[in-house]
Specification:
Length: 448
Amino acid sequence: MKKPLAGLALGLMLQPLMALASSEPSTHRFTLDNGLKVIIHEDHRAAVVHSQLWYRVGSSYEPPGQSGLSHALEHMMFKGSSKLCPMESDPIFQTLGITDNAATQSDATIFFQTVPPHALAVALEVMADQMSTAHLPAAHWEGEREIIKNERSENIDNNPQQRALELSRNMAFPASASGSPVIGWMHDLERMHIDELKHWYQSWYAPNNATLIIVGDIDAGQVKTLATRYFGPIARRELPAIKPPLELRAPGERTITQYIEHQVPHLTLMFNVPSLSTQTDLRTAPALELLSELLGGGNSSRLKSGLLRGDELLVAVDSHYSGISRGDELLSITATLNLEKPKPLSEVQEQILAVIESLKRTPPSTADLERARTRIIARHVFSRDDLQSLAMYFGELDIAGLSSEQDDDRMQILEAITPEDIQHAAQTFLTRDRLTISHVLPKETRHE
């Protein structure tokens, strides 16, 4: 069968970009004697540098009763060190034109800066000092705890969609902490003690548990000199034993219904699936990525063409899967109902499941598969053209225990995935015994 012209044209346009992205001639990697990994990518198109320090610790590492530790520690890292008073880095960075921030994820804690090339040494010195001598003063903890609690109230407790997602994700990961909220449960925050944060810091903030990523208008040799100067003297430490978070293969169908201050009924279906790190067949994650795109990616996807524009039962529907994770993942489908054509959530749910069943019975057409493949490749290539996104990409791979070479292999495998591979992935992984169902209904519809 002939390849669709639109897919062929975009594919031809992307070929040189893919070759450029995969070769990465300006990317350098080395490891200091103390175990700190360093990734440097030279790009001299603009006089700017993005620096990121990734620690391999996040909410998925936290034991029950201590949720939110990694995020709370991220906040406290700016409360002073041997060279800096609390918050002193802010005016220094502003004077030098440096912008900085931090973020906590399920698998990582990240500190990042956008830096003029001449100020990179200052940024690295600050990050190295925080790694080795952060003060974490008890006198500042109570105030910072209130800031974190307010952040949780504003972003989750008072946000109906986020509140609904938090509980359903927690149910979707019955065998691991991958579904724990990054910010932590409110009752864990209220009883968190500064000594727990200090222990977490001593356990995980070590050079042999971190990766420094520098991308932009820099010279790799100069960065190696700076990294060795500021991070080299920090002693490596023994790290706690940790295993990748794996899920039950068939935990059973789970359903949660929430009645909250939400005007429009909302449905989420989440299937427990492997990631690139946990798959046993190299075709699994690429097939799942294409399967997700076929279901709810572009406008021509099955769910959008059938239930959004066709029957008009939905005002929004999307499918998401990311294979870059250190543990098992979810393939998620989210749908928002159209109030002008009201249908029970259970009926819409069955129609979505019927679309999935159709892929189990009949493989997708070659044309549909090529369109999905082209969209994924385009996003992959163009996202890496942005320097900050490229740094994030390097970090996400490293945290997952993957390399850019392995991801290049993933893209090559993705190009070879067949319609039958898609059918097999749907039959194997999109099953009821791997499914978590979340119904969100307006509070006023609840009958006590």
